[in-house]
Design a protein that fits this description.
single chain; alpha/beta; Leucine Aminopeptidase, subunit E, domain 1; seven-stranded mixed β-sheet; 7 strands; globular; disordered N terminus
Length: 193
């Protein structure tokens, strides 16, 4: 992490219990992802846009786990998810701009990654579909590349340990996917909620 980045994030990283895993992402345990995203898009120096990818199911439910927290804070994300209807197929990623900072133009964008087949139950202990997750993560990577070209602003990834909660996935494996697929992003912050 560059010294400029550390200076901008000193309020975030200095007060948190975190560890740097292979310099690919920073795992943080003490901060609210939404508060941090708002701080970043409003920062006068070294601010940037923030993309928040998370896993969604393919049965139009958006009311539990991290999705519930999103719906409470940014109802527009849930509303857009419900408008997907038949497009909510495994491997599809919906990008929703939830907030735009007026002074600097930085944005908070949610990536609803449809990678969960149904919900967790005794018959469906791992509804996370890894193939769909990889496809969605590649969609996020492509979106970030296009965003940088079109918008000219920086963008950071801030996300929960997606796919490992209600979706039943293995976080160790998912973290390896992050290293493999998003290694170019360099600005990745994972929140252990």
């Amino acid at each position: 992490m560059s010294s400029r980045k550390m200076e901008r994030n000193k309020n975030i990283t200095m007060k948190t219990k975190s560890k740097n895993l292979d310099s690919c992402y920073l795992l943080t345990t003490k901060h609210n992802i939404f508060d941090v995203a708002n701080q970043i898009i409003t920062a006068k120096e070294n601010g940037s846009s923030v993309i928040i990818p998370h896993v969604c199911n393919n049965i139009n439910l958006f009311g539990a786990g991290f999705a519930k927290a999103i719906a409470d804070k940014y109802p527009i994300v849930k509303e857009n998810f419900h408008m997907l209807s038949i497009k909510a197929k495994l491997g599809y990623t919906q990008f929703v701009e939830a907030k735009k900072e007026s002074t600097y133009g930085h944005k908070i964008i949610f990536a609803n990654m449809i990678a969960q087949n149904g919900i967790k139950s005794h018959k469906n202990i791992r509804p996370l579909n890894y193939a769909a997750l990889v496809y969605c993560m590649n969609n996020v990577k492509s979106y970030i590349q296009e965003f940088k070209k079109a918008d000219g602003n920086r963008i950071e990834i801030h996300c929960p340990k997606f796919g490992s909660g209600l979706a039943g996935g293995d976080w160790k494996f998912i973290s390896e996917l992050i290293k493999d697929l998003w290694y170019e992003s360099k600005n990745i912050y994972i929140y252990s909620l």
